[in-house]
Each structure stands twice: as structure tokens, then as C-alpha cells.
Write a structure and sequence with these properties.
Largest sheet: 7 strands, mixed
Structural class: alpha/beta
CATH architecture: 4-Layer Sandwich
Strand content: 25-35%
Distance between the termini: 18 Å
CATH superfamily: Ribonuclease Z/Hydroxyacylglutathione hydrolase-like
Helix content: 10-25%
Strand order of the largest sheet: 6-5-4-3-2-1-14
CATH class: Alpha Beta
Number of helices: 7
CATH topology: Metallo-beta-lactamase, Chain A
Shape: globular
Number of strands: 14
């Protein structure tokens, strides 16, 4: 099973808009602009197995990310929650619809799907090949704690706290993805044991009201004991190289385009 981080930045990306005019514009914060691994688009990833590609979140940078990664299609989408940096690229999926000539299954919790229907109402009109192409989705509701089949995968749905909001994590075999998270209910904690690789959103060094910090990640590493943690959803205060030097070898900051393999073992948790 291959995982590719399409993007690993926070909601504003790195650099953020601002900081003057011209080619060097942008707010880099503590990130060294000379290091290409500090240039971060909004967070998203693809999980591949047996020719099937599951896209997790469609960021506003989806088109650029797909071209950079060399991907031309996906087979299904899982949306973790309906914040704009995670669903803002759904309109770009029309290019995929045009290739595969069918609806794309889109999975998410009820609240997520309802918000997508409000923002992208046009994507749920009957498909008409004679009209200007629009994205077409087949909505699939998921519930916290359940395990369902998406393509070749058994996917377990993890309830997460996102400050005073929610987000949805997922576990596929011994791999898990938890972005935009500040904590886990007790039932979710049971689903996070014996992980080989865990990709976690980590926005900044110190406590944040709606995102995990480096301190949180270190605490979860000690509590859940995954073999490997890869950080995503990083803000402009986390420089790649300095963060990598300070973290233990089992925790690594991700970068746009990073890919790695995790042996797939069908697991129901």
C-alpha cells in the first residue's frame, strides 16, 4: 500500500499570502524559503493499493498537487470534515469525472456531506454530457466507529476532536490518518493501537485551540506507541530542517510529494 502526501500545509499554506510584492512575496514565518520542503500546499493525501486510489480531502490546491505528483485520476474520495482547506478543490474533480465517465463516490460523515451539498449544489444535478462539465459525486455517509469497504480497503472511521468542532480520522490496516485534531474520545483511542505509520496534523510548536502541537504529538507517541509518525498540516512556524533535527527518528515532518509504503493487512478495529 502506497501513501502519497499531496500537500502538508495548514489552511493558509506556506508561504502565506502577504509580506510585500514581487517574486519573493509571501509570509514564511520561521520556515527557510530556500528549503523546498518548507513550501507547503494544503493538506491532502492519496492511498493506493491494487490500482485503486483513495483521495483523502480535496484541497484548494488539488489540480496543482495532482499534476506535481503525476496522477491523472482517483477512484473515490474521503472527506475528513467540511472546512474549506479540505473540500475547496472538489470542483476540480470534474476533470476526473470527464476521464472515468461516471460519478465519483464521496465518503464522509452526515454533517460533512450536508455542507458539501450546500456549497456544491450544482455537483448533484443529473449528469448531462452535452453541458459544460461539472463534478459529479455519489455521496456515501459514514459513522464514527464503523468499518466499511472502499475499493480494496477495509476503512475504520475514527471520531476526533477539532477544538470545539469535529474531524474524521481513518485507519486502513496498520496505517492511520488524523489531521485537524486536538484529541480523541475513549472509543477512538482503542482504534489507534498497534499502528505502523500514523500521519498526524501538527500545526505549531505550542498548544493551539483547534490543532495538535508538537507537544501533543510527542504525548501521543508515548501513549499509543506507533512505530512511525509523519507530520502534516504544518504552519509557517515549523521549519522542516530544524523540526527534523529536534524530533526523535520515529517522528518525521512530511513534505509535499512525500511517498512511502505500508504493508496492507486487512484489519477490523
Amino acid at each position: 500500500m502506497k501513501i502519497t502526501l499531496l500537500g502538508c500545509g495548514g489552511s493558509a499554506g506556506v508561504p502565506m499570502v502577504g509580506g510585500g510584492e514581487g517574486l519573493e512575496t509571501g509570509v514564511w514565518g520561521k520556515c527557510d524559503p530556500k528549503n523546498p520542503r518548507n513550501r507547503r500546499t494544503r493538506s491532502s493525501l492519496i492511498v493506493e493499493y491494487q490500482g485503486f486510489r483513495l483521495l483523502v480531502d480535496a484541497s484548494p490546491d488539488f489540480r496543482f498537487q495532482m499534476l506535481e505528483a503525476g496522477f491523472s485520476k482517483i477512484d473515490a474520495i474521503f472527506c475528513t470534515h467540511p472546512h474549506s482547506d479540505h473540500i475547496g478543490g472538489l470542483d476540480e474533480l470534474r476533470a476526473v469525472n470527464r476521464q472515468i465517465k461516471r460519478y465519483i463516490p464521496l465518503y464522509g460523515k452526515k454533517e460533512t456531506l450536508e455542507e458539501i451539498q450546500k456549497r456544491c449544489a450544482y455537483a448533484f444535478r443529473p449528469h448531462d454530457p452535452n453541458r459544460f462539465p461539472w463534478p459529479s459525486f455519489n455521496l456515501k455517509e459514514v459513522n464514527d466507529g464503523e468499518t466499511l469497504t472502499i475499493g480494496p480497503f477495509k476503512v475504520s472511521i475514527i471520531e476526533q476532536h477539532h477544538g470545539n468542532y469535529f474531524s474524521t480520522g481513518l485507519r486502513i490496516g496498520n496505517f492511520a490518518y488524523s489531521t485537524d485534531v486536538t484529541g480523541f474520545p475513549e472509543e477512538s483511542e482503542k482504534m489507534l493501537s498497534n499502528l505502523q505509520t500514523w500521519v498526524i496534523g501538527c500545526f505549531q510548536e505550542t498548544e493551539h485551540f483547534s490543532h495538535a502541537s508538537v507537544e501533543d504529538v510527542l504525548r501521543w507517541k508515548a501513549h499509543f506507541s506507533p512505530k512511525k509518525i509523519i507530520l502534516t498540516h504544518m504552519g509557517h512556524k515549523l521549519d522542516y530542517e530544524s523540526l527534523k533535527q529536534r524530533l526523535p527518528p520515529s517522528i518525521e515532518p512530511g513534505w509535499d510529494g512525500m511517498s512511502f509504503n505500508v504493508p496492507y493487512e486487512e484489519k477490523v478495529v
